[in-house]
Amino acid sequence: MLVVGGAAGYWLYGDRLPSVLSRAASGAADKVTDAAVRTSERLDSQEGSRIAAEQEARRRAAREQRDRELGWVTVNADQPAAPKVDPLRPLRRRNGPAYVSLSAKEVAGLLAPLLAQLPPSAVAAQLALDGDVLLVRTAVSLSDFTGQSAIGAVLGKALVGEDTLFLAGPIEPVRPGLAQMRVKELRLKGIDVPTRLIPGLVRSLRDAATTSSATASKTATSSQAERAGNTVVDSGAGAPDGLASDALPVPLPKAVSDVRVVNGQLTLYRASSSPTVKP
Fold it and tell me: Total domain count for the chain?
């Protein structure tokens, strides 16, 4: 039983073993600290409570400092953040640069379509760029995942209430007009979903988004046809071709031929056939 359990755990989390061991060591250290605090509380309840409060304050301050460093940007699906100056204007100039590197705040509007791939309860999300990956976090209703076998297998009956969905991964081009976010890390209910289960979940999210979009489009078309007295023919819809199994689509403007996350910024490369504008 131990061998089978160990083999199953390695199959699910083997590629994350270093990070899992690191978190386990950190967790063990926290438990030792908590035990010391409890011992202190038994000896002196007031002093122990003070120490616990100070430690929690330090942890909260560290999280807040990390968030400030990352520069999280809130994006709403209906009203995406729009910068005062078009960040892609340099790429559209006749003699413009070969590429531009922009912060999360400057490209939030460009990345806003990602929200269409998230569960229905995710009405807004926060985006950040860290190193060579895009970070996405949003509050979701866990009931959105009850039908997803990948998540259900990991979390089981824990899918109750609301929690934070966290995604992380690089962005890479697929073809002209389309890039993809490769989801390499997915966390829900504080639990890291095994890497081998991520593609199935991402595919389910993508299919759900496609179905929702197709239904909305069909409804709108039907309404227009009814007013015009025409018959509607359903042509169907599908996921964008060329996407990786663990990827979410990111539409690209015509002025952009390639996109990468580099050094905490989104680098957009100029398309050779991009339209020009007068200075």
Answer: 2
27, part of any domain? yes
Taking the C-alpha atoms of residue 137 and residue 169, their distance in angstroms, rounded to an integer, is 12
Last residue of a domain, one of 69, 93, 112: 69
Q: Name the residue range of residue 39's domain.
A: 2-69
Closest residue by Cα to residue 261 from 274, 277, 250: 250
Same domain, 16 and 107: no
* Cα–Cα distance, 133 to 21 (Å, whole number): 22
In DSSP terms, 141 is beta-bridged to: 162
Per-residue pLDDT of the chain (279 residues; tens, 9 = 90+): 777 667 666 666 666 656 655 665 666 666 666 666 566 555 555 566 777 778 888 888 887 787 788 889 988 866 555 566 788 888 888 888 999 999 998 888 888 888 888 888 888 899 999 999 999 999 988 877 766 655 665 565 666 778 889 999 999 999 988 999 999 999 987 888 888 889 988 888 888 777 765 555 444 434 444 444 443 333 334 445 689 999 999 999 888 999 999 999 999 999 875 444 443
